[in-house]
Amino acid sequence: MPTTPWSVKQAVLFSQIDQSLSSKSWTILLGKKGTCKAELIDAYLKTQKLALYVNLENFDLVPETFALGLISKLHHNNFPDLPSLQQAPKSAKLAEILAILQNELQKIAPDQQLMLTTSFKYLNQYASEKGQRMLVCFSEIQELLKLNNYKRINDIVLLLTALQLPSLKILGTSSTPTPVRRAFSTASFVFADSLTEQEWKTWMQQSKIPFAATSYALTSGIPRYLSIVLSSRQEGESFDAAFSRQLADPHSLLHQTAKYHLDYYLDLARGQGLLLSIMRALSFSPNLRLTELARKIYRPAPITKSLVERLMEVDLLIKDNNRYRIADPVFAALLTIPTPEEVTFHHA
């Protein structure tokens, strides 16, 4: 029996990742926040003989320190700087590769491109000497694109995909499907989508939870929300009531998780302000046309169109028959809840 909502898809996703990695050097698992990519990847990496996991949201993305940090991760963070790395046990070939980094760091202006490519060559050589394929997993792989801000890098994806690294495979994850599919166009993509309604019902029935239809409608099949609601459900409480109670409570895990996810995507869309106004308007009046939405936020249609496109770029909005709606029903429900300040003002 599946133990968690996302485990329903685990075997299928693992098979798709295996097939992709067998034919492509780069594979990216795409899924919006809440689809439990981290849990799926953690389980998948445990099936690998040689794997390196790098959370790019908490990793230094300056080329010089990125290169050293990658090698340090390989040595389990026991050697966080170059002098210490030089003391790490290694073959003559690995020492030779590391010496390239040492030579560059002695220069006033190190060759950042060379340092990055050298660090990946180090990983490849390490795996080759082990006689195994190494799987390098980058969580939130779109963060790699920040390296493009350095003039000598320019295009990190092109730079790395051009390398001949037969003992390396790259597995990435991303919560931003639309921009990542464009930026990593040569990669293969696997989709950690929300559960289908049938998958949702199957898990709930196997877990002896008798309210599949309503839970799916409220959460659109996002596993994280289901887990949170069920973990805090009171005895005898329906899913609908538990969901509404928890979402309305600003201190609840459901409310805080949904708000974190919403803020994450709004930040990616470059701002709150008017973007949040558009989201709020659609939470109360879904399926508006562009002109109707423009009137709601008191802005001309061209400005509104530009704002809407930014929201669609990060998959917050869906356009259907020239009408717009919020993609995630939990976000839509969250935005209809008055903030504590609004409640205070109302009762003042």
Average pLDDT score: 87
Largest sheet: 5 strands, parallel
Q: Please give the domain count.
A: 3
Q: What is the share of helical residues? A: 40-55%
What fraction of the residues are assigned to beta strands by DSSP?
A: 5-15%
**H/E series:** HEHEHHHHEHEHEHHHHHHHHEEHH
How does this model look, in words?
This protein is an alpha/beta fold and 348 residues long. It folds into three domains: 5-191, Rossmann fold, CATH 3.40.50; 197-248, no CATH class; 257-335, Winged helix-like DNA-binding domain superfamily/Winged helix DNA-binding domain (Arc Repressor Mutant, subunit A), CATH 1.10.10.10. 54% of the residues lie in helices and 10% in strands. The protein has helices at 10-23, 37-45, 63-74, 82-87, 92-105, 112-130, 156-161, 177-183, 197-206, 212-219, 223-231, 239-248, 253-268, 273-284, 290-297, 301-313, 329-335, 340-347; strands spanning 26-30, 51-55, 134-139, 168-174, 188-191, 317-320, 323-326. The strands form two sheets. It has a five-stranded parallel sheet with strand order 2-3-4-1-5, sandwiched between helices. Helix 5 packs antiparallel against helix 6, helix 12 packs across helix 13 and helix 15 packs across helix 16 (301-313). The radius of gyration is 23 Å and the shape is globular.
